[in-house]
User: Fold this.
Amino acid sequence: MARHTARDLRSENRFEVLHALFELGPSTRQELARHTGLSPATVATLVTEFLSGGVLHIAAVERNTGGRPQERLTIDPDRGRIVGVDVAETYVDATVYDLALGALGHGEAALDEHENDPDYVVDGILRVIESAVEDGGTERERIIGVGVSMPGHVHPDTGVSVFAPNWDWHDVHIEKMLEKVLPVPVYVDNPLKAVILSEMWFGVGSVVDSMAVVNLGTGVGAGIAIDGSLLRGTTNNAGEWGHTLLELDGRQCRCGRRGCVEAYLGAPGLRTTLAEIDPEHPTLRQSRQRDFVEAVADGLAAGDPALTGLARRTSRYLAAALGDLVNLLNIPSVTLTGWTSDALAEWLVPALRDELPHHVMPGSLPGLTVEPSRVPGNAVALGMAAFTLQQFLTRLGLASPAGTRPRPDPDHGIDRSRQGQRL
Amino acid sequence: MARHTARDLRSENRFEVLHALFELGPSTRQELARHTGLSPATVATLVTEFLSGGVLHIAAVERNTGGRPQERLTIDPDRGRIVGVDVAETYVDATVYDLALGALGHGEAALDEHENDPDYVVDGILRVIESAVEDGGTERERIIGVGVSMPGHVHPDTGVSVFAPNWDWHDVHIEKMLEKVLPVPVYVDNPLKAVILSEMWFGVGSVVDSMAVVNLGTGVGAGIAIDGSLLRGTTNNAGEWGHTLLELDGRQCRCGRRGCVEAYLGAPGLRTTLAEIDPEHPTLRQSRQRDFVEAVADGLAAGDPALTGLARRTSRYLAAALGDLVNLLNIPSVTLTGWTSDALAEWLVPALRDELPHHVMPGSLPGLTVEPSRVPGNAVALGMAAFTLQQFLTRLGLASPAGTRPRPDPDHGIDRSRQGQRL
Ligand SMILES: [Zn+2]
Ligand SMILES: [Zn+2]
Assistant:
């Protein structure tokens, strides 16, 4: 049976301290030890490593009555820059962050849903990174890593898109393709893993240890955390809530099965529901998914009765599908994210809350909160930046065998002259 | 946010060592440290504590070439006796185990499904424990604890049956009622938690770290383990897979919702399916659930076409509902347990395996195993005995503050003269 190795634990301790710094803000070593439950010695070692790597700096020195002076530590936002990229089926969205994961610049572009050439997608990613970098006035040589979320089945250790059904991709080495052009480490993962890391670090994770965040867009899925750990599953495929059943033999889902949740709650599913209510409804003329969802939001604001019916049916589907998630996992919190949620949450959530008691087992209902995510900006891009920061800290640690003091590694920055490319 | 305390970790380390002893058989301290990933010092401390408490004894002393003599340790089966009790809606089933969880004696009785008085159920439990104790020729004073699985929502810390829908129980203090009569610690939990602990310790847990075990009986549910930890959920309600949707607005489920998995895969659900296929089928005349399921098995063996149709439809429902579980959790193993599974697995599993690829996402299918559980005997009773053993070890540890050596506690045995009751 797989067991934690000492190396795994060292990484995890490192991430615990990092997470605590985000949650607590500027902190003393004692506060970090208390919050993480790690020993003062372990915290001291990691803080020394982070200080040497320039990731932390000393924000203040406090002299309490009777005690020794205490250093208050904080992440140094200017140690570097990180780019988080959200590649979806219809768009690419990138954000440049400082090392404290504050957003500095943003870029986005539409992807042609019918283009599936990996070079086309990679080119889109590079263009959008470029515009985010320009928007943020970022010095390119300060970028220490790029995190890219890819839809479908991704293998984060190898950076391979194992299977992306919408593009019919099999084993596309997306990380290698990007690293050929971008002279910094690239980390590839799946959006469900990114949104749950965001939620753990910057959302309800400050209040609860177990949670799901439901991502509503073209596809739908759930990022899941149990007892403070992100649920990846054996092959990084956990969270395919979009492909659990709402109705056996129901609507055709694009995964090949019938009746999946996604066929009702994905943006094309909303279109199907509206067509069932009123096949002639003018909103159905919007051919692009995001335009359609925006038009639904506008129509709801104007009190359109067919769209009101659509919202009511969609809330009920959502309550039923979230009920399944809560009944199985008995989690105390579900948050909603993604562009469909951004556009429609104010109409969906009140009705959803009314419906939930009909779908959640009585023992799992008290204390259950369901709300739009409070994670700022694009939760996928932010989560990918957080993963990239974790990777950076791990490399920092690997460069420092016990007893030696690590130094900032100049290769973590971009040397443009050496690479001669456009980032 | 909730964090592990040092106390939690000490319990967990203790259980890790115990689990390793079950998995490895007689082991040296080094082997236990290697298998658990715990430090040799931690293992040495726990082994000393277990030896002092009489839980372990030295099976052999080995002299390897060049090395120090090494003690090979094993659980002492004769340190005590544990009773595991499976209380279901239609029966009570009890097994007496030695401390190595070898079964020594068994007892069972039917419960009247229409009787819901707690005293009636408690009396049934006591009678069945008594017959298991007699069957095993167990000396009553050697019993160190009784573990009782109760259906519904259970709070294991207080031993309260918070809600048992089939009996309409609310906040029945089942542990207190039993401890009034049984002069040993009683531990109460839910069957889904018991079956997954059994599976982790005595089933596929020797091969995988994450798994689900699906319990098929009157009700259905799933015990879930993720990365070697049992999933309890916030209120010990995790695993209510029986109350996830197979079909929105489908068959009425006794939980009040329509279309739950249990309405198709619980024993009464099988009856409904058969009535849909052939409302006049003679098997439907069996009024007791277990007789009905046994008659279905007999009819399948005889090639009855309506029952063959029932098995085919049931396999398909099961594949769909297991597909949801696997798509959400991306676990590598699902096992089947419970009396419906015992009776019908040989007819359900082959068809289920044929159906599964239609319901499981391609990334979660390779390497997925679905099979009847290999856990011997009643997995609920065995799991409850294992929990009771964990509780016993925790008490052993609590009685030994750092630096002192714990001694066997005579109160862990039953002093019949003092209590004068019938156990
Ligand atoms: Zn699907
Ligand atoms: Zn139900």
Q: What stands out?
A: The pocket of zinc ion (ligand 2) is lined by residues B 243, 253, 255, 257, 260, 262 (CB under 6 Å). The longest helix of chain B spans residues 305-329. Confidence is low (pLDDT under 50) at residues 1-7, 400-423 of chain B. The longest strand of chain B covers residues 56-63.
